[in-house]
From TrEMBL:
InterPro entries with a match to the protein in the record: Leu-rich_rpt, LRC31, LRR_dom_sf
Protein's name according to its UniProt entry: Leucine rich repeat containing 31
């Protein structure tokens, strides 16, 4: 005798079919654990339909309905059914035009989600001023690990209500409050409460209106957030002056990998304090001090000590008005230091260029060439000569992989000849682009044979861009035969008019 399926099984089969149909209609893959409806143009009706499916999604762990502009104000039906998906770990609702009512409904719904580890509400500007109905509902011992509230127009009141909640979220690992310009005055409170967030690993306070007192309070928090790996304080223009006291506490952050202090109006005194501490952050990989116009003169001692950071990969110091001696220190640091992969120096002044030449001479790494651009003067052609001079000493650039020299039509035959002769040391170069500016065309000069000779030596090269250089038919032939004759497979891209 065959056993009949019980009602609940029939139910669940029918329910799952509904889920499948709905997901297929949205052009997404159905999965019982992960419902991703990101950017599907969902409407209020869809939300109601989704809500009715919750009883059939009892295994759901991840729900992403971010980037759906039309569901603002319609969340309630869904939140009322959250008790069916109590295993939910991840809930993403960024950029949904959530309203105050939605936030309140979500707060109510949170009680049904005892396993929630990640909540993303970023880019919902109406949360501003309306966060507390949500934070009030966060229970003691809440398992939340990741909370993102980027660009939500949060107010100081929201910041305060969040601060009061933090002690109930003991597992918090990622707190992203970036781009909330008006929470500055509550950051002191938030920082104080972070003292209990001992698992905190990422703290993003970019553009949060942090002032000196906030920085000092953070300093105190650094005494207990030992696990912090990423600290982003960028674009807090009134923070300058706060680091001179807080910097000393950074020393506790032994695991810190990323320190972003871009555009923080760092002062000389701040820099002096940071110089004592940054070289002790032995896990540091990325340091961004860009757009601090006042540190040009005080950065040299720090650069001289960067060699103590064994894991450092990237130092960004764009637009810092660096002086001769800071450049020197930096170039020495590059010279000794093979771990460094990226140095960003976007200095425009001519005086910087001679120094850049020095850095290039010492560079062991993949460089960013963007600092060579100064459109307002004809100095571009000088730039390239500096570069060429550095190149011809080669060897130092043996790790360079990509070299983009597009638009350098004005450097002349002699310049190119010198350039191709100097390229020999670039053992790892795989892409080279010397294309001309669109709408210009030029004949290849005498340097063409230097190019070919150079290509035989660049054993790693796989792509050569020469758009808009006009090749004679015999030059084309020589390029076409090159791969065969030399057992290579370089892809050439060149002007193909005839
Ligand atoms: C926060 O940490 C302090 C000591 O670091 C402790 O005395 C206090 O009880 C903690 N507060 C909560 C709510 O856990
Ligand atoms: C700091 O945060 C901003 C905003 O989230 C981000 O764009 C930037 O990349 C972060 N900085 C670093 C070094 O990760
Ligand atoms: C380009 O260089 C000149 C100095 O030759 C300098 O005065 C000018 O400010 C630079 N332009 C930019 C955009 O930095
Ligand atoms: C003179 C000139 O066009 N210089 C260009 C050389 O290549 C670099 C890197 O692409 C450009 O930034 C310069 O403008």
């Amino acid at each position: 005798e065959e056993s009949q399926p019980v009602d609940s099984e029939i139910d669940s089969v029918a329910g799952w079919r509904k889920v499948k149909q709905f997901m297929q209609k949205m052009g997404k893959k159905p999965s019982s654990k992960n419902v991703n409806l990101n950017n599907c143009g969902l409407t209020a009706t869809d939300i109601v339909e989704l809500a009715t499916m919750m009883p059939h999604l009892t295994d759901l762990e991840e729900l992403d309905i971010s980037w759906n502009d039309f569901i603002g104000g319609t969340l309630k039906p869904l939140t009322l059914h959250l008790q069916h998906v109590s295993r939910l770990k991840v809930l993403k609702l960024s950029s949904c035009r959530l309203t105050a009512d939605d936030i309140m409904a979500l707060g109510e719904g949170l009680e049904s989600l005892p396993n929630l580890e990640e909540l993303d509400l970023s880019w919902n500007s109406d949360i501003g001023g309306n966060l507390s109905p949500l934070t009030l509902k966060i229970q003691e011992g809440c398992p939340l690990k990741i909370l993102r509230l980027t660009d939500c127009d949060l107010t100081a009141e929201d910041g305060k209500s969040l601060a009061k909640t933090l002690y109930r979220v003991p597992n918090l690992e990622v707190l992203d409050l970036s781009i909330n310009k008006n929470i500055g005055s509550s950051l002191r409170l938030i920082a104080e409460e972070l003292r209990n967030a001992s698992r905190l690993s990422v703290l993003n306070l970019q553009m949060c209106g942090l002032k000196q007192d906030g920085i000092r309070a953070l300093g105190a928090a650094f005494q207990s957030v030992f696990e912090l790996k990423k600290l982003n304080l960028s674009c807090n223009k009134e923070a300058g002056g706060g680091f001179k006291e807080a910097a000393a506490q950074l020393v506790n952050l032994k695991q810190l990998r990323v320190l972003d202090l871009r555009q923080c109006s760092v002062t000389d005194a701040d820099m002096a304090a940071l110089t004592q501490v940054i070289p002790l952050l032995s896990s540091l990989q990325v340091l961004d001090l860009s757009s601090n116009r006042n540190i040009g003169g005080s950065s040299q001692p720090l650069f001289s000590r960067l060699r103590f950071l064994p894991k450092l990969k990237s130092v960004l110091i764009n637009n810092c008005a660096l002086t001769e001696s800071s450049f020197q220190a930096l170039s020495m640091c590059c010279y000794r230091y093979s771990g460094l992969r990226t140095i960003g120096v976007k200095e425009f002044a001519i005086s910087g260029l001679a120094n850049i030449k020095r850095i290039l001479n010492n560079l062991l790494i993949n460089i960013i060439l963007y600092f060579l651009r100064n459109k307002s003067t004809s100095s571009g052609s000088h730039d390239i000569y500096f570069l060429l001079a550095a190149m011809s000493q080669a060897g130092h650039l043996s790790k360079l992989q990509t070299l983009d020299l597009t638009y350098n039509g004005t450097i002349g035959d002699e310049g190119w000849t010198m350039f191709f002769k100097g390229l020999k040391g670039l053992k790892e170069l795989s892409e080279l682009d010397i294309s001309l500016r669109p709408s210009t065309c030029q004949d290849c000069g005498l340097w063409f044979s230097d190019l070919l000779l150079c290509l035989t030596q660049l054993s790693g090269l796989t792509e050569l861009g020469m758009e808009r250089w006009i090749l004679t038919s015999s030059q084309k032939e020589r390029l076409e035969c090159f791969n065969k004759e030399n057992k290579r497979s370089i892809q050439f891209q060149y002007y193909n008019s005839t």
